[in-house]
Amino acid sequence: SGIYDARALQDKWQARWAAELPFTASEDPADERPRSFIVDMFAYPSGDLHMGHAEAFAIGDVIGRYRFQRGDNVLHPIGWDSFGLPAENAAIERDSRPDEWTYANIETQAGSFQRYGVGVDWNRRIHTSDPEYYKWNQWLFNRFFERGLAYRRDGLVNWCPQDQTVLANEQVVAGKCERCGSDVERRSLNQWYFKITEYAQRLLDDMDQIDNGRWPEEILAIQRNWIGRSTGADVRFSIEGRDEPVTVYTTRPDTLYGATFFVVAADADLADELCAPEQREAFEAYRSDIAKLSDVERQTTERPKTGVFLGCYAINPVNGERMPVWAADYVLAGYGHGAIMAVPAHDQRDLDFALAFDLPVRVVVETGEPDPATSGVATAGEGTLRASGPLDGLGKEEAISRIIEVLAERGTGESTVNFRLRDWLISRQRYWGTPIPIIHCPSCGLVPVPDDQLPVTLPEMKGAELAPKGISPLAAARDWVEVGCPDCGGPAERDTDTMDTFVDSSWYPWRYCSPRLDTAPFDTGTVNKWGPVDHYIGGKEHATLHLLYARFFTKVLHDMGMLDFTEPFARLTNQGQVINQGRAMSKSLGNGVDLGEQIDTYGVDAVRLTMLFASPPEDDVDWADVSVVAAQKFLNRAFKVMAEAGQGTPVGTDFSAGNTDLRRATHRTIDQVSALVEERRFNVAIARCMELVSAARKAIDSGPGASDPAVREAAEFIAVALSLFAPYIAEEGWERMGHVGSVAIGNWPEVDPDLLVQESVTCVVQVQSKVRDKLSVAPDIDAEELERLALASEKAQNFIGDKQIRKVVVRAPKLVNIVVG
Ligand code: ANZ
Ligand code: ZN
Fold it and tell me: Which of 9, 434, 498, 542 lies at 20 to 30 Å from 607 by C-alpha?
């Protein structure tokens, strides 16, 4: 039973915001306000908003609303990432169409976002499943294709047996499907890729632009590791009985003399080619055993090493030694050259293999650690080279330089750079996504659908027609599939795969800048004015997915002359999660908290304030530890102060006549809250607002009363500050104080530096060691200033009269003694 009725306020102000659209960005060229571009990661329309949305969007909203208050021209849009599997699975289950479920959920969520009071530009709302949007995915695909950045090839891909579709490497987490958790299998398929590897070095280099405290270090570290740049050497080994040498990539060419065997990726064509006839049967058997394993499983150190001898030998180019060639699955076909020189003494995977198959272990780097052959632990550290011919006695770096010289002289190797990053596999064998705009023509090959025939829209399909069957459901829509070739006019077929939905989210911020443009994905001039995004808010689960892809797209668009910047997000904040009783909320644990119920019980403002007050944005919020009731009580106190201030004085009251102590408290709060919001320490900013409410309360009750102008000054700032965190009560309080129009825009007050004095202390002024006056001064006042103030004191002057001042003793800030005589 608060003194304000949360629900009534919500209805009242929601209707006003909907009518007046105060959070609309301006494209007026004459508008010279600084621009701020604040973007929340797309919402995914599965069901209604939940506590996670409430947290993320409250954070983005504080950031956006603060810029509105500071007088910026703010672009804070909202949109939905509305393609994807959940819609399709729901449609199969309900025998309906994916778009029905999707757009119904979007409407529900949009209503909930409105009720939640997010200050966004509703005019720019976008949904990626609209043909007006995905047309531009197809247009961009065509540009990538022209530039050789979209290509098709056969390859072993990650296959989710549950979702019946391929997955990008980024979507495989510890060998499992990122979405459904099934064990990922391997399949050989002909698929579309985006050539992100061509941008690997730039993805690293451009981190300089954001590695300045503006992006979480953790995300940058994850990306660096995922891109995985290493420098090493390519070394060519000849194979007995074969003309062509085989190249291996190694980061430790200094250990070349320690190589005792040679391993080829079992699923690479090379293994097949090298296999001697007498080993053929064993090799084929091994190959079919491992066909289903993912890269991650192959490489985990926990799995026992498996492999098969291929019946041939490689020759070490530096010492002519004969090394048996094996095929094994721990060597990956898609990395380096798909073959390695094995140095068991210094590489753990090679050592495990050597011990499993009784192959020799030779130490060539003396590190002082126990012998790997007996300890089972490879020694990877620094040391001195031995048993290595010309490298003996050298340290690691010197040995690497020396061996590269030797290899270069003999023409058997050179230094090289390698990246772990693989090309981005974008084909999906599912329906609810952007159709790949390619036509397969038996005579012309791959023919892009001409731009003027875009979009290629999805044919209407529903229910069981969408069931996963290993090929795209679109393949069954024969009327849609069969088309004339755009080049030769002959009979041809559409590509039936759809694009990974991460394509949709790789460029959407730019669409917000000109959301209804129908001649291009976005207007370059407009985007260059807004971009890059000043502040991007979203979860850290996207470290190697969306955040990497969006960075890649930005660079490609830059190279196409469509963007003048190369990094999409100048600043990134990853919100924490809302958990309950120490655990992530889940159906199985039964610890879910329903956002709608929270809002119905406590009101939007109290829920938002609770989220933001509980912890810094990056930290998790445990709903078991918070008190929404306490937030509600605080809001009631704040509301009373605003209402009483409104009764005490009219709008436009001159604050300078107000009580100085309260004025100081207000200005100190303005100053601190500004800095705290800029630093994203919202919880501390809210604590400062709470203190100001208490100070104002005290001034009303025991001090000068509500008619004091300082009370109004404090209450007005309380309304302005609360507009970031608890927007409904802020609007209502502002109105109660006699203002017309929204509190939310351009009302952040200037700090009066004279009022920033920390607090005052009493300074005693003596004349001839007798107390004659008392001054109220800042605790950090300097001696010179204090002396000036003391000498200016009228009371002291009365005792000095016309006597000569001999000496002034100053002990700042407490005492000044004036000696006369
Ligand atoms: C010999 C060696 C000796 C290696 C040593 C390491 C330590 P990063 O750092 O990830 O780039 N390697 C090369 N190609 C591979 C493949 N296709 N599949 C699995 N492993 C492969 O790893 C480079 C190292 O991984 C290379 O350096 C190679 O093993 C192995 F003391 O060569 B090294
Ligand atoms: Zn053709």
Answer: 542
Q: Hey, is 262 helix, strand or coil?
A: strand
- pLDDT at position 146 over 60: yes
- The CA-CA-CA angle for residues 114, 115, 118, to 5°, reads 50
- Please tell me the number of the ligand nearest to residue 230's CA: 1
The answer to whether 724 and 65 have CB atoms below 8 angstroms apart is yes
DSSP 766-797: EETTEEEEEEEE-TT--HHHHHHHHHH-HHHH
Tens digit of each residue's pLDDT (9 = 90 or more) over 433-466:
999 999 999 999 999 999 999 999 999 999 999 9
Ligand 1 pocket check for 252: Cβ under 6 Å? yes
43 with 721: CB under 8 angstroms?
A: no
Q: Residue positions in the annotated binding site for ATP?
A: 587
Question: What number of other Cβ atoms are within 10 A of residue 221's Cβ?
Answer: 12
Contact 585, 591 (CB under 8 A): yes
- pLDDT for the residue numbered 302: 72
- CA-closest residue to ligand 1 atom 31: 346
| Residue 343 alpha carbon, nearest atom of ligand 1 | 3
Structure tokens at 392: 């003996």
For the question of an ipTM over 0.90, the answer is yes
* Residue located nearest, by CA, to atom 1 of ligand 1: 250
Whether ligand 1 lies within 6 angstroms of the CB of 349 is answered as no
Give distance in angstroms: CA of 148 to centre of ligand 2.
20
Give which of 531, 743, 613 is closest to 38, Cα–Cα.
Answer: 531
Q: How far apart are CA 731 and CA 719, in angstroms?
A: 7
From CA 49, how far away is CA 594, in angstroms rounded? 9
Q: Considering the entire predicted model, what is its pTM? A: 0.85
